[in-house]
Prior knowledge:
- By secondary structure, the protein is mostly helical.
- It has helices spanning 2-15, 27-34, 38-50, 84-105, 108-122, 127-144, 148-161, 173-191, 195-211, and strands spanning 54-57, 61-64.
- The protein is globular and about 45 Å long.
- One of its GO terms (molecular function) is DNA-binding transcription factor activity.
- This is GntR family transcriptional regulator.
Amino acid sequence: MEAATLDRLLDYVAQHNLKDGDALPSERSLAEALGVSRRDLRGALASLEAAGRVWRGVGRGTYLGTRPLKFSASLSSLRAGSSPADIAEMRLVLEPAFVELATSKASPDDLAELEKCARRNAMAKDDDEWQQWDHRFHLLIAQATRNPAIIALMEVVNGMRMKPTAREKTADQDTRRHFAEQHQAVVKAMIKRDGATAAARMRDHLLNVQWRIPSHRG
């Protein structure tokens, strides 16, 4: 249902000629306009937020586009001048530790959502759809840590990855399939509450991502 809601939401944006920086209606109004439940709408908005296509601020509403730097000034320096290689290296250092922490803290609902996201990732038909579910997968892991600082950092990392100069391309189906299998291996280890294995599988995955960045190839 979430995928159908996401399609309706994207159609709504297109039909109303909304662009980056424009505000979306309130959650209640938007759910009524789309003919969907607020729960399904929240899931669709979370997917777009993880992909850097909308941002939400407490008391501010939901806006199209990436979060403006003025609303995340303490982390803005991370965005400035970071190359794809820099981002990949940072992720390799940090995310295995994040997933190990998340394995110990994740609720059954967190794990179910991660499993669902990994399945959606495996079904991606193109690079845009892959990126959407990939960003959501990594943000869900951060959210499962229950650590606001880690969650904020991953939101910024996802935003950095959306820049045209920093975005990893997964243009071929074989690459997407391979990465999806690696995501599923991470989730399987998390479900078994095996943090060390989950961290190792995440490290394997990020090494594969890093290898596909030109400056890291042998």
